[in-house]
Amino acid sequence: MREILRVGSRKVWLYIIAAVIGLVTGYVVLSSPDSPRLQSEEGILDLTQAQLSTNPQKLIGKWAFYWQELLSPEDMRVRSAREGNQDHWINIPSSWLGYPLEGQRLSGTGYATFGLVVHLSEQDRDKMLALRLPSIFNAYKLWVNGELLAEVGEVGQDKHSMTPQLETKLVYFQPESDTLELVMQVSNFQHHRGGITKNIELGGSDVLTTKTNLNLARDMFITASLLVIGLYNLLLFMLRRKDKAPLYFGLFTVLLGIRSLFNGELIFTQWLPHFPWELQFKIEYLILCLSGYIITMYFDCIFPNYVSRWFRLGTRIVTGAFCILVVVTPAIIYTKFLLMIGVMVVLHMVYLMIGLVQAAVRRMEGALIFLLVSVITLVTVVNDFLYYNGWSLIGNTSPLGLLIFTMAQMVLLSSRFTRTASNEEKISRELQDVNDKLIEMNMNLERTVQERTQALSTAHDDLRTSYDRLLHSEQGRKKLLAYITHDLRMPLSSMLGYVEAIQDRVKPERNEQYLKYIRENTIRINRMIEELSFLSHLETGQVSYRMEPIQMIPFLHGFFEQYELVVRDAGLDFILDIGDTEDRRSILPVVEMDAKRIEQALFNLVSNAMKFTSSGGLVRIALVVEVMNHARYATISIQDSGMGIPPDQLEQIFERNYRYDRPGMGIEGSGLGLAICREIVQAHGGMVRAESDGKMGATFYVTFPCTVIEGKG
């Protein structure tokens, strides 16, 4: 690494030129559009040839512009019908600051209404679409086709009647026609630039949601990285206060991490939406003002004697003046100095890079890396200033550039600490040469013992795992054997009696009937063996489940359609009652479950209801969403109009082999269906219970915890 860093002046300039060319090329590639840019003309944007569900579009171009008017969609329709077409248009994204209107140029404060009509393609009609709204200075309302979809802050006609707020939003809607009418009211009395200064995107809900989540993840990664690096360096300074480089670098990185919370996806306002707007802007601007001075002090610690005394004094005065300006004045004043603050930060970086070039030419270790990452950081910072002034197409690049800068500085500081530690180790090594062989022997012995211990531990764990599996399998085998011994004794004895009756020719004329009984018992025994085996696997935990989030309403519709003919062929009415759960689209239940196993459990309950309900009766399935202990649960009820269950036996019906046969009904069963149902439901974290008055009908309730409550929009 030292050989790479220690180069002559010619190589230094070659590296700088290569870095600049690479950055310029990357900027050209990133700023060039991937597809033809569709722009609105006189408030109309034609997207009939675009497929928004897969290719979102930015709503750029000329929008209708109503200055000093806050119009609702109804007001705009009345205005259009009375006065005809609007004759004022404004390019979006851009600020209304400097917009020529009636021979004058507008100031940054005021309020206005923006309008845009979007024509959609046929394939985007009735699709779920979304609008990705950036931060807009400084409060707005948005209507789509007359419906209020977004409101950030409080729009007003003066400073006292409005509430500023910055927030990024993602709103969803489903157009019922191929035309979208967008109406947005915007007011600003706090910032020197007002209006829609960033791109609004329209596209499919899935695509824009994914894009927003990726941007949020990127911002959170950069913020977390900056904060962790900064706190780590501050801790290093607390442990070793002689070297102030970690102090300045830690402060610089922590402040940048805090500032990144107020940029991009505005993570901070998503966490604390009621945080004061003015304080938010003051924090952001103060960090921007201080960053140049702090990085200068850090550079002075890394490369002493390269920062002149006059520059150090001048930067303190200028930085202090800007900080005082930000603290004592409102945002409408100090935001006008954004360009000057940016020039101050850029001048700091240019001055430092001149010193870095000199240090690299003199072959100082670390100077070349410091210089190259400073060039990258300078380009990203300058690009952000250009973007926020409407002169660049790529925005919010400074966090990434600063992250690269901090990573490189971590390498530089780590090399300094490594070099210091190496010197200390060298001194310690000279003092402990006599004990080296003994230490090595001890280390080898400890390593050998550790390896042997680890091998024994691994063997013991493998043996324990094998033993547990064998024990589990043996328990399952014993349970299955006990079930078979207990449950098959009676049908086998009955079959033996029929066989002996045929052999002894007790009643030859009934031999055919006896054979029929033997066949039915054989089928019954086969079914009981299958159910006993499955129940045994359930009770010993040997059944695997393929859990996945399932929407309960479509699941119950599918279950009902699958078994409707079976129930109706038995002479029973079959009803599915979702109630108002399906109508309330904001609380559709989702359950984490194995759909096939739950279908098996529900069919056992439906089959049980069919057995105990006479022809002409009713079987009803219903779904309700309940709230218990601040958690939501989906409860499926299966109700029949059969003979009912005595209340004192409701707790026993889920036990294995329990059968309730009312005299005269002649109903046979294995007594395993409800036990299997209970095991499956409990494996999903649910519960099953029954209610009946013992006279007329019974109702079984199956309750599952909801993982997510989804809505259709």
Structural account:
- The chain starts with a helix and ends with a strand.
- A hairpin with a 6-residue loop joins β20 and β21.
- It contains 18 helices and 22 strands.
- Strands 1, 2, 4, 5, 8, 10, 11 and 13 form an eight-stranded mixed sheet that branches. Strands 16-18-19-21-20 form a five-stranded mixed sheet.
- The N terminus is likely disordered.
- It is flat and about 125 Å long.
- With 713 residues, it is an alpha+beta fold.
Task: Give a topology summary.
Blueprint: H1 2-5, H2 9-31, E1 39-40, E2 44-47, E3 57-58, E4 60-67, H3 73-83, E5 89-92, E6 100-101, E7 104-105, E8 110-120, E9 129-133, E10 139-144, E11 147-152, E12 169-173, E13 179-188, E14 201-204, H4 205-239, H5 245-260, H6 267-271, H7 277-302, H8 309-328, H9 331-334, H10 338-361, H11 367-388, H12 398-431, H13 436-487, H14 489-503, H15 511-539, E15 548-551, H16 552-569, E16 573-577, E17 588-593, H17 595-611, E18 618-628, E19 631-640, H18 673-683, E20 687-691, E21 698-705, E22 708-710
Parallel strand pairs: 1-4, 2-8, 16-18
Antiparallel strand pairs: 3-14, 4-5, 4-8, 6-7, 8-13, 9-12, 9-14, 10-11, 10-13, 15-17, 17-22, 18-19, 19-21, 20-21
